Model the fold of this input.
Amino acid sequence: MTPPGRTKIAALLHNAATGAEVTVKGWVRTKRGNKNVAFIALNDGSTVYSIQVVVNVASFAEELLKRIATGACLRATGLLVESQGGGQTVEIQARDLEIYGTADDYPLQKKGHTLEFLREIAHLRPRTNTFGAVLRIRHAMAYAIHHYFNARGFFYLHTPLITASDAEGAGAMFQVTTLDLQNLPRNEQQEIDFTQDFFGRPACLTVSGQLEGELGAMALGEVYTFGPTFRAENSNTPRHLAEFWMIEPEMAFYDITDNMNLAEDFLKYLIRYALEHCEDDLRFLSEHYDSELLERLQGVVQTDFVRLSYTEGIDILRQSGRPFVFPVAWGVDLQSEHERYLVETHFRRPVILTDYPKEIKAFYMKQNADGKTVRAMDVLFPKIGEIIGGSQREENLEKLQARIAEMGMSDKNLWWYLDTRRFGTAEHSGFGLGFERLLLFITGMTNIRDVIPFPRTPNNAEF
Ligand code: 4AD
Ligand code: MG
Done:
């Protein structure tokens, strides 16, 4: 279906039938020319390319043409013809122009703005070629994710965003309350009386849909969640957001190897999908930001990921002789410098690291027989480090309860989760893919704030 009253520029450029009158509507990227003819580059967001509108100055009121400047929104109607100049295949010979909105003092100009500056005008940056490309790719990836799972019989499960349990046990949750912060109700012990709060108890924004995802898997077999998650960790890095989107498949009857196979196939599918469906936008981004982008994407699709235990990974890092900022020893949590050394320098391909020390992983992971490690798996990618975190889950009730107690956690809020281990428990596994980390890899952008329309980071909730 075509939109009412216009043709999208993507459609015009892809199957250009010259000789017909067409109408386009969009925003002016540039206007140049001389006293006889003006050239307007018009973009409507359907493609990274703008269409050139050629205006015979004598045929239009001077006042109208003066109001057409970068940022203005207008309709152009005219004959679609083969382009006279280079750089484009077709152009429109304007017969009629209508201005919808002018744009005096428009902050975006032709010259390339820095990504830092564009973050300050995030409300307008979707109108740049760069963010148009990123946002179209973001859409395509979201679509591909649903398509991938649907084609394999996974069901999309909507897990709650407001929760009373800290799935990752990292204590980095945002609290949700309707209590009057200036005048908190107190109980007899002088503690805050959460029975008077909206949910009658403390509640937070979720850090993961996994725990409820597991309930879904133990009923529907294979499910996935895809929604926003929130983490109040104060890490101001180019790879962390306070609000990010996560895809979490959860599968009954999968062990860790099945889980790794799915993760690798899923990532390759998504990258291949981008290469096949986002050609123009990827080419634009590789030309302007990262000349090795397409090569890197193709490389990952074609190669087998390395599979390696954490212990073997630590040995490699220790033998590397590298002066890492964070020292390496068995038991430490890997930093992105370590992950990237393994992927970019040592193996030169993605790595799936398994069997991490239990102390640095969440309570729900399946315990190995050695008593020291758990059946975790992190997928490490070039330029990114950790892109996926997952595990086989501990399905044994006693072991799970023992681990919860050992970690000093309360199982008071987890009775419903533990019930899955009481009633028809089975081997199961799952993982979480950070959507923006995936987009960092696919677009070649280097700051996670540039792959989400409106980033939420410490001290930043503008727009
Ligand atoms: O490794 P994480 O913390 O795993 C979980 O949340 C599990 N519940 C997933 C599961 O097994 N179902 O997070 C998963 C992924 C990370 O690998 C990373 O890609 C992304 O989520 N991620 C973040 N992305 C952006 N900003 C942050 N602050 C992120 N924290 C994690
Ligand atoms: Mg992780």
In short: Residues 167-168, 208, 210, 231, 240-241, 244, 246, 248, 386-391, 430-432, 434, 436-437 surround 4AD (ligand 1) (CB under 6 Å). The first helix runs from residue 9 to 14.
